[in-house]
Design the sequence.
């Protein structure tokens, strides 16, 4: 998984907001004490606790789409009725757009698609 440095920094900054998640096999995380990016394995499953403050969850693109759907559901809309557009243009970067019930959220990121998805999710979460 090619996470950008900017995206990993954002995950660390968002750690308090994402700390409620229970670690599952295959989750990406940053061990802040050792400054290591790793995947939750059977060996580390019992150790990795996002609420501890030692670990920061690093959502994959699929997990970010799930966060967007959960936010849409929390706003009282049916996530299956959303329209999403993810585009990439060389030199410009990523654009992520979501439309639900006439309301648009547009996010841009030069570094990675995960950054664009995360910015879109945050904009949606703040709008509520």
Sequence:
């Amino acid at each position: 998984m090619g996470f950008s440095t900017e995206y990993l920094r954002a995950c660390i900054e968002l750690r308090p907001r994402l700390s409620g998640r229970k670690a599952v096999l295959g989750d990406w995380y940053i061990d802040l004490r050792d400054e290591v990016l790793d995947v939750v394995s059977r060996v580390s499953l019992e150790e990795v606790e996002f609420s501890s403050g030692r670990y920061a969850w690093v959502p994959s693109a699929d997990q970010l789409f799930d966060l967007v759907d959960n936010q849409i559901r929390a706003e009282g809309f049916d996530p299956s009725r959303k329209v999403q557009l993810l585009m990439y243009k060389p030199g410009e970067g990523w654009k992520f757009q979501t439309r639900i019930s006439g309301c648009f959220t547009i996010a841009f990121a030069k570094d990675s698609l995960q950054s664009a998805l995360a910015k879109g999710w945050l904009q949606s979460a703040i709008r509520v």
Q: What stands out?
A: Helices lie at 5-13, 61-74, 113-127. The longest strand covers residues 93-100.
